[in-house]
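Researcher: Good morning. I'm working through a list of sequences from a screen, and I'd like to move beyond sequence-only analysis. For each chain I'm collecting a predicted structure so we can compare shapes side by side. This is the next one on the list. No need for commentary yet; just the structure.
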Amino acid sequence: MSTNVKPIPEGMHSITPHIVCAGAESAMDFYIKAFGAIDGGRLKGTDGKLMHGEIRIGDSSIMLVDENPEWNMRGPLALGGTPITLHMYVENVDAAFERAVAAGCAPTMPVADMFWGDRYGMVTDPYGHMWSIATHIRDVAPDELEAAMMQGCGPEAT
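Model: Good morning. Structure tokens for this chain:
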């Protein structure tokens, strides 16, 4: 065994989402269409279910697996929702949001300029996962951020 093996593989970050989907292979194909993801590989079990899949969006990986109730692995549709939002920074939030909606995501929060300095919107994909999409448009000083929060968390007037 080589002693030169990196403890965190090249191209991976310290934390990588690993999501469960009903129809994970179909979800991978959807994310390629909706978010421009790159297919990082698929490994099926003997039952034909996806045991491990990986996509890359920008510089980040997301791992996927098919639902398997026997292993207590259920996706958001089986659970009636999810408390998790996958956040994605992109160069052009408006174009990315429209691409996701055109591919089949449901818009859940329209794109708007937000008080914390991002242009930001949210969608839910057909597999029940929530995504926030943002482009950072300005840096906000801590005192300005605190004042804006005291006025209410919402889109800033432009």
